[in-house]
Amino acid sequence: MNILKEILQNEVFPAIGCTEPAACAYAAAVAAEHLDAPGHQIDLKVDVGTYKNGAAVVVPRSEGAKGNVIAAAMGAVMANPSARLELLRDATPDALRQARAIIDKGACTYDCLPNEPNFRVEATVSSADRSARCILSQGHASIESIQQDGKTVFHRKDERDAEASGYHDKLPKMALPDVLTAAITLDEDDRRFIDEGVRMNIAMADLGADVPGAARQLRRMHEAGLLGDDLFYRVKTRVAAAVDARMAGLPYPVMTSGGSGNQGALAILVPYIAGSERDVAPECIQESIAIAHVLNAYVKCFLGELSVVCGCALAAAIAAAGAIVYQHAGLDMPKITHAVNNVIGDLSGLICDGAKPGCTMKTVTGADAAMRAAFMAIEGFGLSDDDGVLGLTAAESIRNLGRISIEGMLNVDPTVVDILSRKAADRT
């Protein structure tokens, strides 16, 4: 399997709602499916990134409820994981009622795994005399193991482990020009899949036009004469609308990038809209979106799957900037390096404090930064390697950004989780 297909298979997929609550629902549904009776007790444990990303985001079909716990309870009640991260689309009012009843009677525990640096969800569902457990790792819908009554009935084989994480091992060791060259080796299936992602995310942006959020505020600023109707405005408004819709819990799918729906909105819609409005050939736009997906995956190899810094405003913005440069200059590495450095020099250090409606503000920032970085780079302008953490090459700058995130910001996630936990306690 080539590197592009590995990334498309593992990190680019449809999801309904924020992917962390959706993963919790999926894990609980898998566990519940392995019981012979309805589950009455749910025990959920998640990594730090999943904890913060599920704290304040609306869960689809939940009548406005927020968080990983209600999502897991709904998944356990539904007990039908076949739709994977789209399963909440089929949640009924009765399933929501049963999920709330489990939570209201105190039969749902929820814990953060404070020392777990990687994505991990552990969901245990119990009936009167039986229990089943599902663990997800290495991806939001990737099952590590399933247990029934303490006995392992499924465990990901070593060779599957190697296959699932293979590109994670390959990407950081590859020269960035080789990574980007691999990204544009699209076959017809790849092109159809990329077009499907565009249609999906444009549809979500259309739905988000009616959601009270940042996109509506941008339009009001335009109507008030504060923003002009230019390419930047149109791109940012469309991206914001898609993210507004997701964070409001609309039960419709978006195509993810790097396993994130918000990153998918930015990495797909920015190059698609910018390319379409500037008469870039459709085939080139498809290739640029493939570059965005691969570059996003490359950046996240250094930042981590759920990083301390905002993936939408950094990883996806870097990806979108590289995609726009490709549309106008091909694989011109000096210009792509300028684009990467311009984004990192602008936004490095912008933290992730969880998935929530406010993420739209950060995606607007990321979309704006991506376009500014790219169009400046196309003209030959880029921040110098003398500037802060920037390196001589794009790869070096990305590695330095990873060091800032993983080594230099160790206390950010625990601090964010503590703040979120205290806020939750104050409201109960």
**Strand order, largest beta sheet:** 3-2-4-5-6-7
Low-confidence region ranges:
159-164
**Largest sheet: number of strands, sense, barrel closure:** 6 strands, mixed
End-to-end C-alpha gap = 50 Å
Number of domains: 2
**Structural class given helices, strands, pairing?**
alpha+beta
Number of E strands:
8
Strand content: 5-15%
Q: Indicate the mean pLDDT.
A: 93
SSE succession: HEHEHHHEEEEEHHHHHEHHHHHHH
| Shape estimate | globular
The helix tally amounts to 17
Offer a quick outline of the entry.
The protein is α+β, with helices and mostly antiparallel strands.
What does this structure look like?
The radius of gyration is 21 Å and the shape is globular. A hairpin with a 5-residue loop joins strand 5 (about 130-135) and strand 6 (about 145-150). It folds into 2 domains: about 15-155, 60s Ribosomal Protein L30, Chain: A (2-Layer Sandwich); about 165-415, no CATH class. The model is unreliable at about 160-165 (pLDDT under 50). The longest helix is centred in the C-terminal third of the chain and has 22 residues, at about 280-305. The chain is built from 17 helices and 8 strands. It has helices at about 5-10, 20-35, 50-55, 70-80, 95-105, 160-170, 175-185, 190-210, 215-225, 230-245, 260-275, 280-305, 315-330, 335-345, 360-380, 395-405, 410-425; strands at about 15, 40-45, 110-115, 120-125, 130-135, 145-150, 150-155, 255.
